[in-house]
Amino acid sequence: MTKVAHLLGVVGTDVPEADLREAMSPHILGVNNYAFIVTNNGFIVTHPDLRPVFGDILKPNYNSIDVTEVELVESDNNARVFNESILALRDYIINQTTGDREITVKYHYDNIRRATTAERHYYFSIVEGTPFTVVVALQEKHFGYRVKIPDRFQNLNTTRTSLLDYFKDDEWRIHPDWLYCRYSYDDGDNTSFKTPEDELKHFLKRISKTDNSWNKWPPPRFYSESYDCDKELMLSLIYDANMTKGIFTEAKNDTEKKKKNEFEKRFGVTLAFVATHSGLTRWMDYEDKPKTSYNYSYNQENQQPHFIDENVYSIEEVWYRRAVEYNMVNDESYVYSVPFENENIKSTLVTASQAVFVTSKENKKKGAAAVVGYQFRHSALQELFSNITKQCYSETGCTSAKDTCQSLERDCYLLDNNGYIIASENPMDTGKFFGQVKGPIMNMMVKEKIYKKITIFDYQGVCFKRENEDDSNSSSFLYTPIHHLKQLIGWLIGRVLWLAAHSNFQWMMSKAQAIFEDIPDYQEDEESNYSADTIASFKIEGEKALKYVKINRTRPKSCDRVVDLFTLTSRIPEKVERKSMCDRPYELRKIMNTNLILLVVNGHCPETSKSENFDTLPKEVMYDEFNSSLGCHKAFNSLPRRRPKTACIRTHPDEHEIYDKMCGSSTTITITPITLSIIFFSTFNLIRFL
After folding, report:
1. SS3 658
2. Which stretches make up the Voltage-dependent calcium channel alpha-2/delta subunit conserved region domain (predicted)?
3. Phi, psi dihedral angles at 273 (to 5 degrees)
4. What's the whole-model pTM score?
5. Where do the domains of the chain lie, and which CATH numbers do they carry?
6. Can you tell me the distance from the alpha carbon of 418 to that of 115, in angstroms, rounded to the nearest whole number?
7. 38-42, 324-328, 630-634, 644-648: which range is least confident on average?
8. Each residue of 184-216: pLDDT tens digit?
């Protein structure tokens, strides 16, 4: 008895990467800690540093980023010369073992403009029934502890207050990507909300009506109003809201408004804010600004977005991470920053932030609870900087204005801990990397170990190659009749080979034959399924249609990039012995309780160094030993892969009973003798002719 086999298809599903990141519970891991998923081949599924999109373009290698390309070990190795420690970790991961490893790594943030190093502890374990491994990376030395919620907030009934009382005003936001409470189904107006804050208020009201009871998850059965809440995150949020609800109340009173206005005029403060570990961000404006329909404020004069429009991600924001990191250097320091290379100096704002830690009374361990800060006008800082540096203090040995920054012989700069200019005598230098302005001096400070150089490799880079960019001469080529003849012969050979390849003469030797089934034809006129209004909605007219016909002549390609970034060390000498003033043509001092240094450069000293100015923009890595090809370099230095441990079903015990004439040979790729002969003789004759 023969059997007939029909392949019905393959079943699968897609899971959004955002859902995987949400399942990692970033609020539990805390600031500067994270989790990621790796396949059995070592490729990243989700990772905080996974950047699959460049602008609106999906990167060519977005789905083949290796774990060694995102976890960078602190070493002096060249590009793609991976350290043994990360290779050992990768081997554990692809073999789906459970364990932990500790590695010293370097990492970047702020769009690859800043970098630092840290000790990370990696914990990894298999996801049963899948080829995936989950890895949790913790900086345990500094960030291994969390803030515990007081017992009285574990049971909200004991608070005896409405949960909405903690969120009375509108000057607050929550992390838009975190799951606080959410309906399981989108049921129109009843389950859709304009903002995450509206959704939170809805569930706070609902929880309050049910005597602060929580919905069980998963429910006994799903229905239209089934919802899911992260109880621990919600309790943390409510606790933080209670602790911060009155932080700006006093400043809003009429009696304090005069002091606030005087403070704003004197120091140029425009806004104060606080962000907590539960994703809550509160702020207070020192200036009266118009608001949009969603209560987002804008600076109408300069068309700049309000602080809260770009800073709602709390522990993931750069100023939050930097403040927590710098707390380990000085727990009373404020971290100052300005936008990079901002051309509109008049509207530039300085952001200052400081971390707030809670210390345990039992073991003296501390955890990051929040970050507080404020924004003020850069013009106020510039004025203050100018006034202080131009004064002459006799106790410091100053005898005349020539010894101050007012002199043409002195160039004064205020630098942050990554070497970017916060203030200088030339306001146009604000936000620039100091190496762009004084490259030789920056190299001297690196050599003296005042700044530490950190080389970052970006293995997810995208480079754009223009058409014919390899041509060394831009003039047109002069064609002769011989060149036209060569092109004609090449075209003829190409058409013959194309015809031979598509003819597929091997079917004459195959035993497979076609079978027929009575299947109704598809409707020829597909547009008849749609109404006239629907068809009209498909049409794009006017200027919108133009962008779909423009030819993009740039071709994105995967490439490796490298950049040298810098971080301030603790080696700042108070006094330095020198043979002459130009032997070390600069002086610097650390500014107390900040991440800033004051640098004074002797402008009259000749620059004997051969080094030039440089910036912190990534540059493409060229692999000369493999003809500058990244693909060849990766092929010659391929990393080990592993088959998944799940069952691989390649045969069926009853397949020998299948009617053999119905088994095609499509799985066998062969070339016919006729095609091979045509290719051989055509190539041989072409070589003889040329």
Report:
1. strand
2. 225-510
3. -150, 165
4. 0.80
5. 17-138 (3.30.450.20), 145-289+307-390 (no CATH)
6. 8
7. 644-648
8. 776 665 668 899 999 999 998 888 776 656 666
